[in-house]
Amino acid sequence: MHYTSRMTLLGWPLVHLAIGPRSPDEMSRGIARGWIALGDVANGAIAIGGVAVGGVAIGGLSAGVLSLGGLALGVCALGGGAVGVLACGGAAIALHAALGGFAIATQYAIGGAAIADRANDEVALAFFQQSAFFSAANWLILHSRWLSLLVLLPILGSAFQRFKKH
Predict the structure, then answer these.
(1) Does 27 have pLDDT greater than 80?
(2) Burial class of residue 158, CB neighbours in 10 A (0-12, 13-18, 19+)
(3) In this predicted model, what pLDDT tens digit does every residue of 65-86 receive, in sequence order?
């Protein structure tokens, strides 16, 4: 499934969707580049894909200012494995604050195994309660089942289109 909007900004399409190869003969993955990019590999201000790079990146492997994914790298990272200035995940490594089962940070950390200047204490807990990122991350974690459906919708749509053709 491929779509590129006609509207562009600074040479990039507003929306670029690239999932799968362009033809049945190809084996390549869809690479999307646009302000809003959705694809097997996505690069954009908002990037969603298996591999996503951008301002807001959501994917299996994601890198961005705000990064959500299986392995998330970014300023604010949320994922199974998260690395960033602020990180939240199963394993979280952060320059400033980390929250997770295994959390390592320079300043604040809370987790089953936490390493930081302030780890698993009242000061660290107060920091995490006042942080907008960690409050939002907590909300996302609590509602992740429903948010997963949003990720599945384009995949289901693509599968339905292919089924309909055959």
Answers:
(1) no
(2) middle
(3) 999 989 999 999 999 999 999 9
Cα→Cα distances 127→31, 118, 138, Å: 39, 10, 14
What is the rounded CA–CA span in Å between residue 53 and residue 35?
11
Pairing of strands 108-110, 15-18: unpaired
Q: Which of 93, 69, 71, 87 is nearest to 144 (CA)?
A: 69
What count of other Cβ atoms lies within 10 Å of the Cβ of residue 8? 12
* Token pair 């089924």 in the structure block, residue: 163
pLDDT mean over 117-121: 94
Q: What is the spatial distance between Cα 78 and Cα 131, in angstroms, rounded to a whole number?
A: 14
State the Rg of the chain over Cα: 18
Strand partners, 93: 83, 104
CA dist 154 and 166 (Å) reads 19
**Which has the higher per-residue pLDDT, 146 or 95?**
95
Q: Give the global pTM.
A: 0.78
